[in-house]
Structures are given as C-alpha cells and as structure tokens.
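Hello,

Following up on my earlier ticket. Below are the three sequence lines again, exactly as submitted.
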Amino acid sequence: MKIFPLLAIGVSTESTKGRPLDVRYHLILNNEKIILDNLGFNDSDQVQLDEINIHSEHQETLTGLLSDRLTLQDNQKIVIQNLEKDIPISSIYDAYLKLYLLSLREVKPNSLNLDGIFNALPNIAWTNIGPVDPNEVEGMRAEHQNIIVKSVDKFPCMTDYVIPSGVRIADGSRVRLGAYLSEGTTVMHEGFINFNAGTLGSAMIEGRISAGVIVGKNSDLGGGCSTMGTLSGGNNVKISVGEDCLLGANSGLGIPLGDRCIVEAGLYLTAGSKVERKDKEGKVIETVKASELSNHSDLLFIRNSITGSIECRPNIKSVELNETLHSND
Amino acid sequence: MKIFPLLAIGVSTESTKGRPLDVRYHLILNNEKIILDNLGFNDSDQVQLDEINIHSEHQETLTGLLSDRLTLQDNQKIVIQNLEKDIPISSIYDAYLKLYLLSLREVKPNSLNLDGIFNALPNIAWTNIGPVDPNEVEGMRAEHQNIIVKSVDKFPCMTDYVIPSGVRIADGSRVRLGAYLSEGTTVMHEGFINFNAGTLGSAMIEGRISAGVIVGKNSDLGGGCSTMGTLSGGNNVKISVGEDCLLGANSGLGIPLGDRCIVEAGLYLTAGSKVERKDKEGKVIETVKASELSNHSDLLFIRNSITGSIECRPNIKSVELNETLHSND
Amino acid sequence: MKIFPLLAIGVSTESTKGRPLDVRYHLILNNEKIILDNLGFNDSDQVQLDEINIHSEHQETLTGLLSDRLTLQDNQKIVIQNLEKDIPISSIYDAYLKLYLLSLREVKPNSLNLDGIFNALPNIAWTNIGPVDPNEVEGMRAEHQNIIVKSVDKFPCMTDYVIPSGVRIADGSRVRLGAYLSEGTTVMHEGFINFNAGTLGSAMIEGRISAGVIVGKNSDLGGGCSTMGTLSGGNNVKISVGEDCLLGANSGLGIPLGDRCIVEAGLYLTAGSKVERKDKEGKVIETVKASELSNHSDLLFIRNSITGSIECRPNIKSVELNETLHSND
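Thanks for your patience. The regenerated structure is below:
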C-alpha cells in the first residue's frame, strides 16, 4: 500500500500517572501528499509541507509550529509518529493514526492491519474536560464538579476528532473514530457505524453497520436494522451490502448482499435461514440456505405473511434515495 | 390559520463568514397572544406585549430589551422576523420559527407548510461552544481544545431550544426541534421523535416516530418499534397511531391504526402484508392486505407462532399506561 | 439485609426555589465497612472511617472535611443522610442512596425496596452546568447562552455519578444510575440498562435490559434485542437471562431463560407464543406455551423459515464471549 510510510504530528492527553489517553493528530503526511493539515501549517512561511520528506529534519520545525499554534494543557504532550508499514498495532499512537486514516477516507475498511487494536487502546472516560482515566474521574470532582462522562470506552466518537465533508451524523455518539463515511452519507439517530466499517458512496443509514461491514452507494439501511458483525456473535463471514440496496426497518442481514437487493422490513435473514426461491411467476424453484445466495444481485427477500416461509424473489423495484436528504451542505 | 401573521425576536449565531447557523427565539407573538416570552419581557415596565401590534414601532423597543437582557457573543446578532402567512420556507429564520411553533405546541404536525426546510437549514456541527460551521471546527481547536461535537445535522435537539412542560425525554439527542410532545409524554432512551411528528396526549414512547407520524393519547410505543415515514423508504401513506394503542417492542407499522389496536411485539405490519382476518371465535373471515384495515379500530395483529401467518383478531384487551411513569413533575 | 443502617454524606444541588434536584454522595459507610470514599476522607489524619459508628459525633467532622475538599456552588448544600432500614422511598436523598448502592454493586437488582422512587425523584433538566429545574432553563440563558440539555428525566446517567471498575459503556446516556454492571460488562452503543437491572458477570450488552431484568455471566445480548419489563407493557413476570445465553440481534424475550439458551436473531419470544418442542432428532414432542419453558436450560428457540412456526430445540452450541472485547482496562 503506497500510503506508507507516514509521518504524523499531534497531541496526546495523559493521565495523572503519565499514561497516554488519546491522540489528536493535527498533521499527517507521506512522501506523496498531505493527508491532514488541520491548523494551517502549509500556509506558514516557515515550511512547505509538500517538500517535506517524512524522515527529514523538518520534524522539529513542525513540532515548533504546532507548539506555537496550540496552547498545550499541563497534561498534554506533543507526539511525532512515524509509521513505516502496515504492521499489527502495538501502541495507542499507531492505533489512532490508523483510525484517522479510515475516517479521513484515505484507506477503505478491511484494508489495514488492525490486529492488536483492543489491547493498544486504553479504556477512557470521555468527558467535557477531555479524556480522563476512568479511575481518576471521582478524584477530579473536587476541582471540576460538573464533569459529564458521555462514554467509558476504548474508542472515541469520530466527530470529536474527524468531521468528513458532506456528511450528516444526527447523533455523534453513534459513530466511532475509524468509521469510513463517504460524501453524501446521512446517519440518522438510530444509525450506528463501528470502526473499520462504513459507506462507499451516498447512503442513508438508520441501522447498524458492524465492524468490518461495508455498504455500497445509494443504499438505504432502514431504522433499527442489523448487520451481523464478526467481533461478537460467532459469525465468520464478512457481511456487506451492495449498491442500490434497501434493508427495511428492523430487518437483519447475515449474508453479503449483491446489488439492487431488498430485505423486507422486520425480516432477519441469517446465513442459515432456509429460503424458498421463486421465479418471476411466483413458482418455487428450489429451497436453499440464504448463504448460498451470498453476493447475488436483484433479489427481494420477504417472509410470506400467509405461509410464514422466507421467500426470495427476483427484485424488479429500484431503490431511490431522497436527494434532498443527501445534500449535506 | 389564524396564528399568522407572527412577530419573532431572537438571536442568530453566525459562522466566521457571517452565515447564520441557528436562531434562538426569545419572543414570539401574534395579534392575539404571546406565544413565547422566555426572558420576561412582559414583566418589564417599558412594554406590555399584549398591546403590541406586530407591525408597530415597538419592535425597536423589544430589540433594545433583548440586548439589555442578553450579552451577545461576537458571532451573534439580533433577528427580527415577521411571517405574514404560511408560505414555503425560504430562510433559516422562517424554518426555525415554524419548528418552534410545533415544539411550543402552537400548531399540530402536518398543519404547516414545511416545503423547502431541508434547503433552508444549513448543516451544523452542534458543539459545547454552540453551533459551528462543520468546516470551521478543526480550525477552532487552537483556541478551544475540548470542543465536543455532539451532532452534525441540519436540525438541532429540541431540548436545547424548547422544553415543553410535563414531558420526560431520557435522551435529548433523540428528539429534534419541531417535534410536538403533549403534556404527559415520556420518551425513553430508545424513543425517537422527528420534526413535524409527535404525540396528541399522554403517551409512552420507546420506539421511533418518523416525520409526519402522529400518536394519539394513552398510546404506548414499545422499545425499538418502528413507524414508517414518508421522507425515505418509499412509503406515500402518512402513518398514524390512534388512541389507547400498543405497538409491541421491536414491532413495526406501515398503515395508519385506529383506536384500541395492538401490534404484537416483534411483528412488522407493512401495508402490503396479507392478513388473515378472524372473528371472535377464531374463524378466518377473509384474507386482506393490511392497508385495507387502515384506520380501523379494536384490532389485534399477531403472527400465529404455529402457522406463521399474520392474523388480525378483534381486540378485547385494553391498554393502560402506568400512571406513575407519566406524572412528569 | 445487613447493609443497613447506613450513613451517607454528599452534596445536593438545589433549584432557585431551594428544591433539591440531585444528590452526589461522596462517602457512604455502615458499621461494617466503607462502601464509598470518593474524595479520600480515609487518608485524612483527622478521621479513620472504619472506626466511625454511623450514629457517632464524627458526622460533623466528616461534613467539615467535605467542605474543605469541595468548593460548594451557591446552589449546593451538604447532605447527611441516615438510612436505618430498607423502607419505601420517601425522599430524593434515600432514592439516590439506593441507586448508588445498586451501581456500586453493594446490592443486587430486585433486592431493595424501591417503592415510591418515581414520586421521590423530581423531573430534571440534566445540563452542562449541572442539574436544573426544567422550568428554569430558559431564564438561565441570559447568563449561560450555551446551555446544553442532554436529558429531561427523573434519573441521571450512571456515568455522571458512578463509574464501576472494569466496564465499558459506549454511550453513557443509555445506562441509568441504579444499573448494576458487573466487572467485564461491555455495553455497546445500542445497549441500554435501566435502574434496578443489570449483569451478574462478564457480559456483552448490545440490547435493552429493562427495569428488574438480570443477565447471568458470559451471556450476550445482541444488537437491538429487547427484554420485556414490568414497568410498562403489562407483563407481570420478571424476565431474566441465565448464564452463557445468547439473545440474537433484534430478538426479544418475554420469559425468564435458564442457562445456555439461544434465541435466534429476529425472533420475539413472548410468554404466550405457542412453541413446537422438538427432540434431538427434530421430531415434534409437544406444543407448549413459551411461558411453560421458563427457566429451562439448554434450549434453542428459532422460527422455522419454511413453516413459520416457532420451534424449541435442544441447544448443543456453546456461547463464547470474545475475550478481547471484555478486557476493559
């Protein structure tokens, strides 16, 4: 992957014992381009980022510029991180760098080595005064009585670190840093996107995108729908949703879908579900496990409301997203 | 509609480029009454609001009073808005005024012209330092390192602008400004209410009320239940729930319900579902599409757990809300 | 219950009219042990907590120590609360004390008398400037323009008051004070835990644990799954989940489960559902109401995707939690 090697400069907040709690990167670049430049380094007279080699002596200059532009708190220090290649994650600095790359849309889900990420990320109390060691919150109340702890988790919310262009996210607490949201993606209040998962084009997300799951362009995940993940629950096949698909509200998906497929509202299609496959005339052709229909296109899955059987019919209805809802400017 | 014409005075926060980001109204009145008076203007010696004609010279006095009572931030300016009649929305000022009218319970859902609202509302990063242009958040971190971005959306949370009396809202991020919540409404953590939607009386809401959907008094929407909306998903019929109804947990509704109806937990009733209609003795009378039962009362919808068919039986069980849960004082 | 009598010292925030809004306890002890000591009282030279009798004259000393360690805001006062025995709740002070005992894991769900708790707890606007009377929020905006109201509810979020060790809670707004979370519990974004409910061991919670519901160790509640509560919905039987169980995503549970049971993704098992019980060879043994299988172990509940009937089979698959996800340090 030619994105590596990388140079990243940012700020880490530390616990009272000096343990790093998070990393906020302000600058990420490789030998080809500037990936992130949040504080306008490149506008400075002192440095032209596109001339910088990631191993060059400019690192010190960049650090100096960062110090000039940010007032570091007492519990913060500057981080300079070099990542030579895509090896398993062994530090919080690498973990954040890879999560940034995903949310900045530099790399697609399932293309980075994320082994070790759970061990590298400490559990954090995410508060209105910044990240805090969960064991230190109560002791801080003497000084800060109105500490609000919005989350106790290894992963922060994406919107507190990266806000990709052209997206709406109705509830920031439901999209983790490391999610990949393409331009034109709207995540409604009931939507959720885990790290290393996301959308490859304009999409309406009112359901849950589990880690590892990707959704193609112009697809619509209805309210409360579920996509099976591989982190828990025992499923080993990576689920995906193709283009122009609709998962109905409160439905569920346990197989990878092709393009132009519909899963009816309320139907949970597990990989092991036996499905009656019908032709255009409504005649049953065969009975197959849903997993055998993985990645097939133009299918409509419903539960027959008289016989109770799950049926798979040719899908002739096209899904169209409401344009107004996806003009996220 | 006699609520118009209206006069409203408030404060708009602007981006660094002078683009309005939100409007917080502090005073709304028409020729008949004071609809909103948040900062006690009417207690002032200088003005009696009920004597004010919305076209009068008092507007300047009111603006002066607002300036006296609020310390405007550098990026804020006073807004005076006149809305003569209920025309399509062409500005953020009108959009907020109409959303206020809904959440202040002055007008019921589906009674205002909301055309153009998505275009009129800019996409905003809702933060702990107020509304911010999403593109300007990162640049602000030099000054405000602990910016928390709770949402990136066109609509704000209702509770940050209007708190109607006698309601509980366990998670404010799940009720948009423009929602209509009657006295005695409890919205639990899994509940959601979109703009131009809501409850017409005391209600327990643990499911999702989509835009345009209204719920009658004494009805109970169980955890995770879904009501189909018309903004996305392709449905054209406005869904509603009558009085004394129960949508079971994880159920779904694709038709308008009459009064005293129950949809069993876990059952998604789409408009196209074929339903076996039974009489009191349990004999099948006919098989109909669910849409043909729209607005009928006293029905119980279940999926027969032996045959798998969706059945509609006469409902003889009455729904009673737990009084303790609805005394929201 | 030998935990009583108790002595607790904390701080109550009051409305402008002197009505108590919340209680933050910093010290809780009984005659046997120190249950909570948030601000290091016991490290002080002036007092050894384990020598204190709850009726002793040390109460004044403790109050003095609390005043020394915290700067009280103008609208706060010190609370000293004695609770002699487990009687119905008649004050906000007792209500908070009992909710603390649950979240501090001192008492298990369903073991305290919580009668009267809804009446004792006022409805509060939970804001970034602390708890506020919902009717007083708008008037405060003259002084605090950026008030964020994250919730209007009788119960606060647990993480704003108690953070138990060894847990992750991805969205703090979904766990109420009074929830009981055992070490090793992970509550994902779609998880929810009400007061007087929780987990008795390591668990993955991506679904909703209603008031009164308990979940045994090594069990996994899939995304969006529902457990029926007794507060609303008309169910009178307390639901519980045994050890090593799996509730699939978007499933639902209306009976208490034994150990090593699975409810298939998408299946809502109500107490009244008729179920076809099968033996190991797949032969139907009997048709029973699900409630008759309450508390039985080693059962797998699925809906046959061809016949549509709910089946109960012997469960031979064991559920294993992903260890990495539960090492919450």
